[in-house]
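Data availability (excerpt). The following record was deposited with the supplementary files.
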Amino acid sequence: MSSLFVNQLTTIDFSYLCPARGLVGETWLVDVVLSGELNEEGMVFDFGHVKKEIKAMIDAYADHALLVPAEHPAISLIEEDSTRTITLTMASGEEIICQAPAAAILPLPVEEISPANAQPLLAEHIFRQLPENVKAIELTLYPETIKGAYFHYSHGLKKHNGDCQRIAHGHRSPLQIFVNNERREDLEHEQVQRWQDIYLANQEYLHDEYTHNGHRHFSFGYTANQGEFKLSIPAARCYVIDTDTTIELLADHLAQTVSEKIPGQSIKVIANEGFCKGAIGIR
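Predicted structure:
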């Protein structure tokens, strides 16, 4: 057999449920190896098709979705028509409840969401759609190696026409802050500590609050073109702003926050939305 490989074929931006951490935004890079017999073109699989078709399969399966460890005892799942409702009861007594169209929530038959657990499931999903001459597929999922400060965040963008409208998807995002063109790693680490495993939300979509097991919770919701989305989450794990939570608006918000803390200085914030993309906020 022959093999071909494509490193960093794509990225998966998603959120997942964790009984300890709650709702966690994440970004994984994807490497792929295809092995099989050569076709009439002398190829295992055309690189152009790898980059387009396999990327599309990965996107349809897990990108911008909420991944759920369905076999964990703290998780309950209800499926009704084309809607899924997932509930996580955390060890702290807090709860996270998400109701969304089925495509936005991906239950996996595992107790923990991790690259090692997700790799064979995603590989099997892709392999079923490949031509007969491809005999094996190997995927490697892994987070970017980030030397500086970064944070995990989840959000939903109601106005987005694509999958970003899903109320619980997220990213693993590096952050850089400059004051008068000098890097301020102290401010970066201070900010990511505040926003670690955070849910960033628009005040407009906050519809209710309630107390569960002594913990204050927020309930968010909206209807977008993919359907109705609802999310209840501990208030302590949220950060609510007066705008949508696009990366452009988040970078601007962070720049404004730093500017208020250090008035009269030139501020630049570089905030990533996952891997190698993001926005710059300047004050």
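Summary of structural features: Residues 2-172+199-236 form a domain with the Tetrahydropterin Synthase; Chain A fold (CATH 3.30.479.10).
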